[in-house]
Amino acid sequence: MSSVTTFEINEPLDMHLHLRDGDMLKLVGPLTSNTFSGALIMPNLVPPVTTKEALLSYKQRIKEACEGDTFEPYCTLFFQNDYSYEFLEDVKDDIIGIKLYPAGITTNSETGVSSMDVEVLRPTLESMSKLGIPLCVHGETNGFVMDREKEFMPIYESIAAAFPDLTIIMEHITTADAVELMDKYDNLHATVTLHHLLITLDDVAGGMLQPHLFCKPIAKRPEDRSALLDAALKAHPKLMFGSDSAPHPKHKKECCGCAAGVFTSPIALQVLTELFEKYQALENLNAFVSLNAQKIYNFKPLTKKIKLVKKDFVVPEIYEYKNENVVPMYAGETLSWSIED
Amino acid sequence: MSSVTTFEINEPLDMHLHLRDGDMLKLVGPLTSNTFSGALIMPNLVPPVTTKEALLSYKQRIKEACEGDTFEPYCTLFFQNDYSYEFLEDVKDDIIGIKLYPAGITTNSETGVSSMDVEVLRPTLESMSKLGIPLCVHGETNGFVMDREKEFMPIYESIAAAFPDLTIIMEHITTADAVELMDKYDNLHATVTLHHLLITLDDVAGGMLQPHLFCKPIAKRPEDRSALLDAALKAHPKLMFGSDSAPHPKHKKECCGCAAGVFTSPIALQVLTELFEKYQALENLNAFVSLNAQKIYNFKPLTKKIKLVKKDFVVPEIYEYKNENVVPMYAGETLSWSIED
Question: Which of A67, A96, B97, B165 has a CA positioned 20 to 30 A from the CA of residue A241?
Fold first, then answer.
């Protein structure tokens, strides 16, 4: 494997992405669309995307921001308990899934659901199940920060058991427990981010405090990272790449009360290639970043071939557009793989 | 207890304090000396305090910074493997203890010991034991951030067992395991900070990231805080108050790569009173902040009575002196107890 100097990824997909809106969208949109064939776009705008009108207009703004690139934004709705069957039937072909947030659990989730009781969620979930709309979930309780995902497991189990035909995606899993749970129900799947394959709480708070590595869910223990990495490297068929790349301007990261989110879009494919090469698993990378998602969501992405070459890539210190800016993970550092122009 | 409106603390002692040097010392020194009778001063200057000359001159600078207050700085040396018996005998009456840092484990600890093997430490520890000089220890390994203190426990045990006459203080303990270990060896004692009685990792990284609550050892789990609080509230005789109040200028806290340390000196007695009142344990506060330390270290502090009154105290947003500044814990918030002028 030491002789590999180029590597091709077909139809790379980022199945969990935050593109925000306005100038931030114009800044970060192309940093995904120039390398990915498509991405599942999170609906946690202010206000969140809950109507067909908001959905279509957001999709249009994304397409404009990413114009010129072969790129499809797969949009989602922000879960609400009172979505009618008729509404969902009408909007079905314009979305790839619906994202459920417990209220207040992360950035712009204040209007999420206040109860995770299956009976409260039942009307919307039943319609989704019938219509074949996948459910994407931010699975954290409001308990102690290291336990939030584990404490959420019984909720995943109750939804998975109550709606066996509903495709459920545990978003951005961070624990060995979640990896294990994925195999327990046929309809449970998961995304994992790049940064949760790389870091633990040690990297955030073990030395000096590193706000650019602070995210939700927070990075966990070494044994958790190890379980996530194992599953990714073997391209576990129920696991997809979802960067959860989440831009916040520099001044909201390097401050008192810093916002949660790691920005990885412009480095994701290079670092994934580096990582899969290191563990001699390059043959599984295309399944992890594309094929698994195609099967789980049952769709055919736009054709796009990305060629990576073994050549130094110095990660920019900051990306800027008008008044917006964002600091990427590994800012200023040198990666060993580049994307061929 | 609801009728308590004044409370007196006699000879309050802070048995773990960072005063730094230069203008920072001039800024923070008086914020301790105006309320405490004495404090055990940490030796991790740059360079660390390892000679009699450095020790006496630092003590003099502290006294000058705190001039006008009834206050005694109890100084310490920075542990070295090659301290001779003669040197320690000569310096004995000028120090209250010697502080041992594993190399690189916290602020200015780069020249700490690189091996915690008892045999490597033996010459200095043997002299200390014979001369009755207490050993203060920053007890963390360089393992995963949540496990560092627990992983250090076997080292405490081996030193405690090898030197039964040596008074050992586990500094700033943060775990239920350390509370338990304290009772296992007659010669093991501990300090606990104010902030570790109040916060968990949740307060640092559970919501937005809070650099002013980032410290080493990092705040742990709810059950750890609970064990520490129980021991403090009952004034466990082997446990002393040691604030570990550690000033860093604002720009080194609110930045990328923020330094570890919480600055609590100017609010410590007020918040402790609030806390002990809340749990109806005010009768134990004087033991926790003074009597226990007097017995463990076997010394008589300067007479000083501090009267607290139930009156709002708005914590300053920042303390400043010349080019130095520091943001205290609870900056801008209102405490229910004040120190009477």
Answer: A67
